[in-house]
Amino acid sequence: MYKKTQRVFKCPHCGKELTLTFYESVNVKDDDDLKRQVLAGDIFRFECDKCHYRFMACYDSLYHDPQKKFMVYLKSSPIPTNEQFKLLLDKGYVLRWVKDIGSFIEKIEILDEGLDDRAVEFAKYDSFIDYIQNKGKPEDVTGVYYQGYDDDILKIKIELDDKAITTMTPYEGLVEEMSQYPDLFKLDDPFFACVDPKWIIDIFEGAQEK
Ligand SMILES: [Zn+2]
């Protein structure tokens, strides 16, 4: 199930006004094909019918997996609270807010795997710190991403200018460590919380100041 809307959008290359179809919301219940399209980023990919320039357009979109009980909201501004979201939280839902397409897809992959995304941000942060303390310079790192999970091992990809390296972190150990500091890792925003690299950096830098 999905809800689509049409918007006029100028081709970034030739300026032609295009009518694009945006997915305002996506419900992937019993729809693996739709889920694949989202995870591949296809719902954000377009081609100009005049100059054939291909581009990605970011727009607000809500991903909903009712079976795995989570929602990820791609939105440029914070999501206002409402009673409907409160009911979902009471049902055990995880609700997350992300601000860009890459984070949207990454967050869906993490929650789809059934992982605690706070632990994944923790592992990304640890991997980055370990890299800059032992292997290279922070300015060489162009990105740190969730790569996959298998048999209690979280794989984190550190992208450098010319290559990428993968780090392995035992997942349950991280979850256990986090459970010892519930106040530190608790989420301030009760509805669509933003759990991103800034969130974990604020925790650790705040912790060091104390
Ligand atoms: Zn064009």
Overview of this structure, please?
- This protein has 210 residues and is of the alpha+beta class.
- The protein has two domains: 2-112, no CATH class; 117-209, no CATH class.
- The chain is 34% helix and 31% strand.
- The chain is built from seven helices and ten strands.
- The model has no long low-confidence stretch (mean pLDDT 93).
- It starts with a strand and ends with a helix.
- Strands 1-2-5-6-7 form a five-stranded mixed beta sheet, sandwiched between helices. A three-stranded antiparallel beta sheet has the order 8-9-10. A two-stranded antiparallel sheet has the order 3-4.
- Bound molecules: zinc ion.
- Zinc ion is lined by residues 11, 13-14, 16, 48, 50-51, 53.
How many helical elements?
7
Ends apart, CA distance between termini: 48 Å
Strand content: 25-35%
Q: Tell the overall outline.
A: globular
Q: How much helicity do the residues have?
A: 25-40%
Low-pLDDT residue spans: none
**Which sequence of strands runs across the widest sheet?**
1-2-5-6-7
Tell me the series of helices and strands, N- to C-terminal: EEHEEEEHEHHEEEHHH
How many beta strands in the DSSP annotation? 10
Query: How does the helix and strand content classify structurally?
Result: alpha+beta
| Ligand list | zinc ion
Number of domains: 2
Largest sheet properties:
5 strands, mixed
Radius of gyration: 19 Å
Mean pLDDT: 93
